[in-house]
Design a protein that fits this description.
This protein is an alpha/beta fold. It has ten helices and four strands, in the order βαβαααβαβααααα. Strands 2-1-3-4 form a four-stranded parallel β-sheet, with helices on both faces.
């Protein structure tokens, strides 16, 4: 199949080898069909890789986690807003909480959204939560082929102004995420990426920590 002018964000559980394998299979099927794909654990920031580098900059573990959490959040928000559609893998006893946030952002930005689900386990008598199903017009698919058919069908029916819209709801966070994405796209060294996330979020996390300490102090003085 020829290349399609659309980018798809793959959202789903990524916390064990089996989950990552399933997400990679979904991404591969999309890429083979001509879609561009962002798969977070493959294309995004690696916590385990960057965390030691941040510690080498004399940051405390807590500060390093705060900076990385902000960087990962910003990059993923940008990638969602930069994508034209999102595939949500709902397999698991309960849906992955991060994927739910990603899907919510995609829905709020009017992205094309398809839910993939083959797991019958559910807290609602075998039915998906309607708040989740509503993100994809109350439907889901159960095969990789159906993911492709659903995406093709939805893109064929959507107008270009919807598909390529860029509404200004998440501009600041997405702007930070774009800077990280640009570094990753040209394969900048890990040391450069580390410096960037410190520049973007280091002062902010420090200010947040100071504000919290001041609030705690005021609370203690009032007691």
């Amino acid at each position: 199949m020829g290349n399609k002018p659309y980018k798809i964000y793959c959202a789903g559980p990524l916390f064990n080898p089996k989950e990552r394998e399933e997400m990679q299979e979904i991404a591969s099927s999309l890429e083979e069909a001509g879609y561009s794909v962002f798969l977070p654990h493959r294309d995004g920031l690696e916590f385990a890789l960057l965390f030691p580098m941040l510690l080498q900059r004399s940051l405390t573990p807590q500060r390093a986690r705060e900076i990385l959490n902000r960087a990962i959040f910003s990059l993923d928000v940008f990638q969602i807003t930069d994508s034209h559609g999102l595939v949500l893998n709902m397999n698991g006893r309960v849906p992955d909480e991060g994927a739910m946030v990603e899907a919510g952002i995609a829905w709020a930005r009017k992205k094309i959204l398809v839910i993939f689900r083959t797991d019958s386990r559910s807290l609602i008598e075998g039915n998906c939560n309607p708040m989740v199903l509503g993100l994809a017009d109350f439907s889901f698919v159960a095969t990789h082929e159906d993911i492709l058919r659903a995406l093709d069908d939805k893109f064929s029916k959507a107008t270009e102004d919807v598909i390529f819209s860029r509404e200004p709801h998440f501009d600041t966070t997405a702007k930070n995420g774009k800077q990280i994405s640009d570094f990753l796209a040209v394969r900048r060294p890990v040391s450069d990426i580390t410096d960037l996330v410190i520049d973007l979020f280091g002062e902010r996390t420090c200010q947040t920590s100071n504000d919290q300490r001041e609030n705690y102090s005021r609370a203690n003085m009032q007691q």
